[in-house]
Amino acid sequence: MLIVARDRIHQGYRLLTHPLYGNFLPNQQPFRTILLSAPGGTPEIDPDSLYLIEEALGVFRKYEGRWAIPGQLPHAVEEDYAVIDFDLMRESLRQYGFCFSIDAYCGF
Questions:
Q1: What is the chain written as a DSSP string?
Q2: Across residues 7-14, what is the average pLDDT?
Q3: Would you say the pTM of this structure is higher than 0.85?
Q4: Which residue has the higher pLDDT, 1 or 107?
Q5: CA 60 – CA 39 distance, rounded (Å)
Q6: Predicted local distance difference test score (pLDDT) of residue 25
Q7: Per the count of CB atoms within 10 A, which of 6, 72, 91, 106 is most buried?
Q8: What is the span of the domain harbouring residue 11?
């Protein structure tokens, strides 16, 4: 997922959220949402977005083979992690206008 985000950044997308939000290491959280904005006009690489995603990839490489991966944990545990991921993203979703269709779920 981080590699796909990096590829998009090379196409002019910008990070809206930090790829390592919530201070979870790759072996601690199997879900990680990243919000990107699509390029407008002539796509240019955002150096800050590229730096952050490359740093995140470096952190993930340090934990290679020890990642928490969806499908490897009990379903109830994965649901808990998914809720944590969503709760951490809730404010960003609201800030960027993504919660309009899930307001009931967002609890707004």
A1: -HHHHHHHHHTT-EESS-TTGGG--TTT-S-----EE---SS----HHHHHHHHHHHHHHHHTTT----TTSS-HHHHHHHHHHHHHHHHHHHHHTT-GGGSHHHHT-
A2: 97
A3: no
A4: 1
A5: 26
A6: 78
A7: 6
A8: 2-106
